[in-house]
Specification:
Elements: H1 2-21, H2 32-52, H3 67-77, H4 79-90, H5 99-112, H6 118-124, H7 127-138, H8 144-152, H9 163-191, H10 236-250, H11 258-263, H12 266-275, H13 283-295, H14 298-306, H15 309-314, H16 320-333, H17 337-345, H18 351-363, H19 367-380, H20 384-392, H21 396-412, H22 420-459, H23 479-492, H24 500-507, H25 510-520, H26 532-542, H27 546-549, E1 555-557, E2 564-566, H28 567-575, H29 581-595, H30 618-633, H31 636-644, H32 650-667, H33 671-679, H34 681-684, H35 687-690, H36 701-719, H37 729-744, H38 751-764, H39 768-782, H40 801-804, H41 850-859, H42 870-883, H43 917-925, H44 935-943, E3 947-954, E4 968-974, E5 977-982, E6 986-991, E7 996-997, E8 1001-1002, E9 1015-1020, E10 1026-1031, E11 1043-1049, E12 1058-1065, E13 1069-1072, E14 1079-1083, E15 1088-1093, E16 1099-1104, E17 1118-1119, E18 1126-1128, E19 1131-1133, E20 1140-1143, E21 1154-1155, E22 1161-1164, E23 1167-1170, E24 1176-1179, E25 1186-1190, E26 1196-1202, E27 1221-1229, E28 1236-1241, E29 1245-1251, E30 1257-1263, E31 1276-1283, H45 1297-1310, H46 1319-1326, H47 1331-1347, H48 1353-1382
Antiparallel strand pairs: 1-2, 3-31, 4-5, 5-6, 6-7, 6-8, 9-10, 10-11, 11-12, 13-14, 14-15, 15-16, 17-18, 18-19, 19-20, 21-22, 22-23, 23-24, 25-26, 26-27, 27-28, 29-30, 30-31
Length: 1394
């Protein structure tokens, strides 16, 4: 109410001024009355603001409840009055000699400067006015001088322009400040005369050893430090002091004025001034604030600590405004390491009240003061005494409560409903709090590592002598040191070790609170105040102990939508956020920490930790296995592979690659992950080796050297090969291939040969009795006499020394557990040791202190060695022989210890099928099945590499729905019919023999939507009697318009070919079962799929994927070919059981996968998975991003490549499950390795592809729009191709777009003559001698000969004869190919040649 009254008074005064300004003659009190009255209102508004107790650091122009702000805004909005105030009343010539008018105008202008953009104002204002203000400030013309100083204090840009004026003014103001202090002290002494306990505090003349004055705060009179004084009343003297302090504060950051301030001993003066000033007066805040600006400089900070100023500030009576300034002093002081160390060394008695004061300020001070205290604690946690005192006073709950309150405030004040400035401050506060928690946990991490090292040294296990850490020195919590500390703790801590600081953090609910903060930060991820990197870094330190790592796998609900997710999933998602490099680095560090923890279940040791520690309990290994499983189930392998290939941002790409490679090293200690990684194209194709050539950024040589080390270790883990500087990529690929084959080869040998070697060795060393006992026992058990078989003599020399040696031993000794023999077949195995690369060692900077001691521990780590068994030596010897073969084979006869093993060289097989189709068919006629071994595959390559366009269907401009832009979106081929779906929701049926278009059908009969939705897919049943049409709403995120419809197909009924059976609402895609037409598998929203009865439409079973499914963009559920398994979004189901069978690792974002016709394999993008063991069998790079469709005989596979998402983010058609696709479709042989047959480029973007049940016709929907971003606009056509035929008849696959269009038009015009032609007639027509076409071609050639000069007629005849011979051979091959398609079972009568 008060603010409204004051604002109304200002408005009334301005209206009164307008009336007086227009009077002639002017009133005698013009403009004095108005200026004086408005100035009084502004003073009253300032008093109201002080009573409200607002934050003094809040932006004046953004505080809505600030009365002074509203009053000043009202004044500034009156442009006419403001113009007169500045240009006329203040500096105008009209009132040049009117001193009272200038004083009133200056008073009002000094009050209004809060609401003006001062920097812009002083840039635009006349230079004469600024010089006038300096002249007034330097002259002794009070109160005009003080008003001018107050106005100049807002001109921060004037320092460089008026340096000399500022120097003179600083000297003047420093003298005035001294005079003000003397006056204030005199008033204070007079007010407290005769009161010894409450006498004023005076700086004594007592000196120390070095001659420096000191201030004794331990005297009794200092207990009553501050009392009410005469300065407490608001008068002009107070304003005068504030103006001086404001101007000095504006120049506090400039070094050139520090000499004057130091010369006048202003710091001591300020401390004295503060000691005699009432804390309830506004001037106390200005004094403390100016003191904080001086504390930013090292010299003044040292003097401040020397004068015991910290104790002075902490002894002030509590006042919210005053202690807001004290918080800035603390914050400025913490940046001076020397002063903080002296505080921790000699003034440790001050630490207790310091922490107590900070904790009080966290609860009861302005927001700006609380932020400064949080920042002070963040840096102060680097000092051990302060950290220990903070824990002693139980300060952690204060920080957690502050974080909890901030999250609640952010939830209540959303950006859309609250003040933007308030939301900005809350986000900044959240980041500062998380940063303080990070420094708190980081400091304890270093201290705990020191504690473990001290225990290790005390136990006397051969470590270096203990070097006590200087507790007053800062704990250097740097990134390099942090990694070493984490590795050291993980490798030396027990599973149930006590870590009081971290245990207390978890008990207080800190981890759950950080998860809440992580969800809250998602709205402004990647911005300046994003706290996500700090949150993830704190969680990484909180999960160093294995027993707390499982918290990363627990489900936590999101505060906004309630959806539950694990923290490990959120962190892996943050790794892929390429917009925030800090978030990526922090998330990757957590993944590395979790994946590379200690694992002692077997005898191998990965050189990822600092030094081997004690043998862990089994519970630690169980946690490690669970964490590996959690990373896998949340698509961690895919995330790490994508980071391994990243090249942006250039500055940090090498660091991301190094971290991802290290994490993969840790994950590959799991046998399942190692098996998958060894089959990835990145590993087996040499692409990873290519990354070792050079860094992304030439400046990151040290990081790239680490990457090469981890890459070498990874290749050794996966393939058993080590790299060195001289290794080349081809040689490494050769080694990797041979090693992979040798690993798969089962090692078998005659046991009697081994016993004979033992027998001869015993005889050689004189152990005859033992040798005879061995002979007798072998004879009894194996019924063999080892003295007679495989005699070792000169005729059969022993193997050479280089062949007898086992696999080259590692340079590093390996830690083996003697009991690990029995557990060698366990689920998870650690990797082999890291082989050092032949790279020049990059010198590392010494961080001093703790990091050097950890390096010493790493260098002096103890190692033990357990010798291999005899069986290991023999197997290693034989595998080494097998690897030396030039062409190693995976299936070999038994090895021998007395004969050198060599795999046979590959030779041409006489029974191999020839590549020529004529010769191959000739051999088939002689009873050789398929013409020889591999003949069937050659037949597929010959047939399905040729496609001849025969028919083209186009839509009319008009249609039944009235749409002007109607396009094809899907198609299906049934006998002589082509059924097409349109973007208007209609289905059209064409007969490509009778050139007839049947009446259209509406896709969805019962599902209603505002607009018709496109028919995105048409799926026929195996019998060809049923059809499913899917219509998907791609223009919105809702499910309105989604649905599938089941139709019956009757090709004999011309008038009603399609009859509607039922609708399947909410299904985005549906397909039939393979063994019968009884079941339908529908793909729903929210990762669901349902098995539906075809005849009743009832849902038999609904399968909902578990949380953390793969979320493929183009997911559609599919049956296997025996209809007992279902694959949906990477999760394998048996729909007869309620739970999922297995979730496959996500290694791509788009394709969900299909079952292989073999029944034991699954294809997901490029990965080929084994359904029996769920292992990755192989990667086929040519299948990348392809939608796969098998022909009806399931011998050939078609692949349509999806267009990448970043090209079609704005295209509605991309939201459909299938399509759009690139202009080329591929064909593959459905064999064990799916070899590629070829690719066929149609020249236009593909929308859909279908084929008839006899596999002789292929239909495609092609977009005629050249702009790929507009798939369903601009027209589309349906083309029918003949399989196994070339376009020209002579094997010429060259195609021209213009000729295609002309031929299509000709074909459409010729269809009227073929009304009665059936499918059998079509076959005869297509494969008869095209004599008429040949005659036309000959006539064209003759015309060309007459036009062209210099051609030889005889030469043309010879060329024509050769062309006819080639054409006849090609047509014969095509005729044979067509017969193989139509009569594929004839080959079963042949004899298979072995």
């Amino acid at each position: 109410m008060g603010s409204l009254i004051l604002v109304d008074r200002v408005r009334f005064l301005l209206l009164e001024w307008e009336e007086r300004h227009r009077m002639l003659p002017l009133p005698p009190d013009y403009p004095y009355h108005t200026l004086r009255s408005i100035a009084q209102v502004t003073d009253e508004a300032k008093d109201e603001v002080l009573k409200l107790g607002l934050d003094p650091f809040d932006d004046f122009k953004n505080v809505t409840e600030n009365v002074e702000c509203e009053v000043i805004k009202t004044i500034l909005d009156h442009e006419e009055f403001l113009e007169m105030l500045i240009s006329t009343y203040l500096t105008g010539s009209r009132y040049a000699n009117d001193e009272p008018c200038k004083i009133l105008a200056a008073r009002l202008m000094a009050s209004a400067m809060n609401g003006i953009n001062a920097n812009a104002y002083f840039k635009e204002v006349d230079e004469g006015m600024i010089e006038t203000l300096y002249r007034w400030a330097l002259a002794d013309r009070e109160p005009l001088t003080s008003y001018a100083v107050e106005m100049l204090s807002y001109g921060e840009t004037l320092c460089s322009r008026y340096h000399q004026n500022n120097t003179d003014l600083v000297n003047l103001l420093l003298r005035k400040l001294k005079e003000m202090y003397k006056k204030a002290r005199a008033e204070y002494e007079a007010a407290h005369a005769g009161q010894n306990p409450n006498s004023p505090v005076i700086w004594t003349d007592e000196v120390t050893m070095d001659g420096t004055e000191i201030y004794d705060l331990n005297r009794p009179e200092t207990k009553g430090l501050l009392r009410s004084s005469l300065i407490g009343d608001r008068d002009f003297g107070e304003f005068q002091c504030q103006a001086v302090l404001h101007f000095l504060l504006s120049l506090g950051e400039y070094q050139e004025f520090l000499g004057l301030i130091m010369k006048n001993n202003i710091l001591k003066l300020l401390l004295n001034y503060i000691s005699i000033t009432n804390v309830n007066t506004p001037i106390i805040f200005d004094l403390i604030r100016y003191l904080s600006s001086l504390l930013c400089h090292k010299k003044f900070a040292s003097e401040f600590m020397h004068y015991d100023g910290l104790n002075l500030l902490m002894g002030l009576p509590y006042n919210e405004r005053a202690y807001t300034g004290v918080s800035i002093c603390f914050y400025a002081l913490v940046f001076h390491a020397g002063d903080m160390e002296r505080l921790c060394s000699y003034n440790r008695s001050l630490i207790t009240p310091l922490i107590s004061t900070c904790l009080k300020l966290l609860k009861g001070v302005h927001e700006s003061g609380r932020s400064h205290i949080i920042l002070f604690l963040s840096f102060a946690f680097s000092y051990q005494p302060i950290l220990e005192e903070f824990d002693k006073q139980d300060g952690l709950p204060y920080l957690l409560d502050l974080l909890r309150d901030t999250l609640d405030d952010l939830a209540e004040n959303s950006p859309s409903h609250s003040n933007e400035v308030l939301v900005f401050l809350l986000r900044q506060k959240l980041k500062h709090t998380c940063s303080a928690l990070l420094h708190y946990v980081g400091g304890h991490t270093v201290l705990y590592a020191e504690h473990l090292r001290r225990i290790k040294d005390h136990q006397g296990i051969g470590m270096s002598p203990f070097q006590p850490h200087v507790s007053v020195k800062t704990l250097e919590i740097e990134e390099n040191l942090k990694k070493k500390v984490i590795d050291y703790i993980q490798n030396n801590v027990e599973f149930d070790s006590i870590w009081s600081a971290i245990d207390n953090f978890h008990q207080q609910g800190g981890f759950e609170l950080l998860v809440h903060a992580f969800h809250t930060c998602e709205a402004w991820r990647g911005t300046r105040h994003d706290a996500t990197p700090c949150i993830i870094s704190v969680q990484m330190l909180l999960t160093i102990l294995p027993r707390y790592q499982l918290k990363l796998t627990e489900q936590y609900p999101a505060p906004d939508n309630g959806e539950s997710s694990t923290m490990i999933k959120l962190v892996l998602g943050a790794c892929e956020e390429y917009g925030s490099i800090d978030t990526q680095r922090a998330a990757l560090s957590l993944i590395v920490s979790v994946a590379c923890g200690p694992f002692r279940a077997n005898s191998y040791s990965l050189n990822l930790t600092m030094t081997p520690g004690p043998v862990r309990r089994s519970s630690s290994d169980e946690v490690m296995q669970k964490m590996w499983s959690a990373i896998r189930s949340n698509n961690g392998i895919k995330v790490l592979i994508s980071l391994l290939l990243t090249s942006t941002p250039v500055k940090h790409a090498d660091e991301l690659r190094t971290g991802a490679c290290k994490a993969l090293n840790g994950l590959c200690r799991s046998r399942a992950v190692r098996q998958i990684a060894s089959k990835l194209h990145l590993m087996s194709s040499g692409q990873l080796l290519a990354l070792m050539r050079e860094p992304v950024c030439p400046e990151n040589l040290e990081t790239h050297a680490q990457f090469c080390t981890y890459t070498s270790s990874l290749l050794e883990v996966l393939f058993g090969v080590s790299t060195d500087k001289s290794s080349t990529e081809p040689s490494m690929l050769n080694k990797m291939t041979k090693k992979d084959i040798a690993t798969k080869t089962p090692i078998e040998f005659e046991k009697d040969e081994l016993f004979q070697l033992l027998h001869s060795t015993m005889l050689e060393y004189g152990l005859r009795s033992t040798a005879s006992m061995l002979v007798e026992e072998v004879k009894q058990k194996l019924d063999k006499d080892i003295t007679k078989c495989h005699p070792i003599s000169e005729s059969c020399p022993p193997p050479s020394s280089h062949l007898m040696s086992p696999i080259v031993p590692c340079k590093k000794l390996v830690i083996r557990n003697p009991r690990s023999r029995a557990s060698s077949s366990s689920e998870d195995l650690q990797s082999t040791p890291v082989q050092k690369l032949g790279l020049a060692k990059v010198p590392q900077k010494s961080c001093g202190g703790l990091i050097n001691r950890f390096d010493a521990l790493e260098a002096k780590g103890t190692k033990c060695y357990h010798p291999p068994s005899l069986n290991d030596l023999v197997h290693g010897f034989m595998k080494d022989q097998h690897m030396r073969c030039e062409f190693p084979m995976s299936i070999v006869p038994k090895f021998s210890l007395f004969r050198e093993h060599r795999c046979p060289d590959p030779r041409s097989d006489l029974y191999e099928a020839p590549t020529n189709v004529i010769i191959r068919n000739h051999r088939r006629s002689h009873g050789i099945c398929h013409g020889g071994r591999g003949g069937r595959q050659h037949d597929y390559k010959f047939i399905f590499s040729k496609f001849k366009p025969t028919f083209t269907f186009k839509l009319d401009d008009r249609n039944s729905t009235g749409w002007d832009d109607m396009n094809f979106t899907s198609c299906a081929v049934v006998d002589d019919l082509v059924i097409t779906g349109c973007n208007t929701g209609e289905m059209k049926v064409y007969n490509y023999h009778k050139v007839a278009e049947h009446p259209p059908y509406s896709c969805l009969q019962t599902v209603e939507s505002s607009d018709p939705e496109p028919v995105t897919s048409l799926n026929l049943s195996q019998s060809g009697r049923l059809l499913i049409a899917a219509s998907t709403n791609t223009t919105s995120e809702t499910t309105e318009g989604h649905g599938c419809a089941l139709w019956g197909v009757n090709v004999t009924n011309y008038h009603e070919i399609l009859d509607h059976r039922l609708d399947i609402p909410d299904a985005r895609h549906a397909c039939f079962s393979y063994t019968s037409d009884d079941l339908i598998l529908g793909t729903m929203e929210s990762h669901k799929c349902a098995v539906i009865d075809t005849y009743t439409g009832k849902t038999i079973h609904t399968m909902t994927n578990p949380p953390g499914s793969n979320n493929y963009i183009k997911n559609h559920a599919v049956f296997n070919f025996t209809d007992d398994l279902v694959l949906n979004d990477g999760v394998l189901w048996d729909y007869r059981t309620p739970t999922a069978i297995h979730k496959f690792d996500k290694l791509n974002n788009t394709v969900s996968g299909v079952f292989s016709p073999t029944g034991i394999e699954l294809i997901i993008n490029t990965e080929l998975w084994d359904l029996r063991t769920f292992k990755l069998l192989n990667t086929i790079n040519s299948l990348e991003n392809c939608l796969l469709k098998f022909n009806h005989s399931r011998d050939v596979m078609y692949g349509l490549t999806h267009i990448k998402q970043n090209v079609h983010d704005h295209d509605p058609s991309y939201k459909q499950i299938l399509g759009p696709f690139e202009s080329t479709f591929k064909t593959f042989v459905a064999a064990h390795d799916y070899p590629s047959i070829g690719s066929f480029d149609v020249g236009k973007q593909l929308i859909d592809l279908s084929f008839c049940r006899r596999d002789i016709l292929l239909a495609t929907v092609e977009s005629t729009n050249e702009d790929f971003t507009q798939t369903w606009t601009g027209g589309s056509v349906v083309k029918v191709y003949m399989v196994g035929r070339t376009k020209s008849g002579r094997g010429d696959d060259a195609d021209d777009d213009d000729e295609d269009d002309d031929e299509d038009d000709d074909e459409n015009s010729e269809k009227d003559e073929d009304d009665d032609m059936g499918l059998g007639d079509l076959e005869n027509e297509l494969f008869t001698d095209n004599s008429q076409e040949d005659d036309e071609e000959e006539e064209d050639d003759e015309d060309d000969e007459e036009d062209e000069e210099g051609e030889d007629a005889e030469g043309d005849e010879e060329e024509e004869e050769e062309g006819e011979e080639e054409e006849s051979e090609e047509e014969e091959g095509e005729r044979l190919a067509f017969s193989m398609l139509t009569d594929s079972d004839d080959d079963t009568q042949g004899v298979l040649v072995e």
